[in-house]
Design goal:
By secondary structure, this protein is α+β, with helices and mostly antiparallel strands. Helix content is 32%, strand content 31%.
Length: 142
């Protein structure tokens, strides 16, 4: 353990982007069945949500005309869940749910993440523990 006077580690970006456009088999089927009209709807829906996941916080920005920004500091997270339904596994996406102590929005769900969600999940677990340790007044590297 080190003294509380040690500076905070720098905040690093783990993911910065939008949910996957299709991301699951049902959405793919809708896009095919509607001859692409569903894909246009999914594109609008996907481009109006932006995720920023860092080593210290998660920010979800959403909305078309009015923007809503929801932030969850990682030291407030009590539990993290990884969900990879069959249809999303086939298309390489998944969902991460953060359950925290935030009064306004205790559950923050990141859906159809277009990356290796298992790696993001594991990194978030480590960063949550680091943030909690920093908050308690000590930090241990490694």
């Amino acid at each position: 353990m080190t003294a509380p006077s040690e500076p905070n580690p720098p905040e690093t970006t783990l993911f910065d982007g939008h949910p996957a456009l299709i991301g699951s088999i049902p959405r793919l089927m809708i896009a095919i069945a509607t001859l692409g009209i569903g894909a246009i709807y999914f594109w609008i829906q996907s481009n109006n949500v932006k995720y920023l996941v860092t080593s210290q916080r998660v920010v979800v920005e959403s909305g078309i005309f009015s923007r809503n920004i929801d932030t969850l500091e990682l030291y407030l997270v009590n539990d993290i869940e990884l969900e990879k339904p069959f249809g999303q596994r086939l298309l390489g996406t998944g969902n991460v749910t953060l359950i925290g102590q935030d009064q306004t929005n205790p559950t923050l769900r990141l859906v159809r993440l277009p990356l290796d969600v298992r790696t993001l999940y594991e990194q978030l677990r480590q960063d949550i523990e680091k943030c909690k340790n920093l908050r308690r007044g000590y930090y241990r590297e490694g």
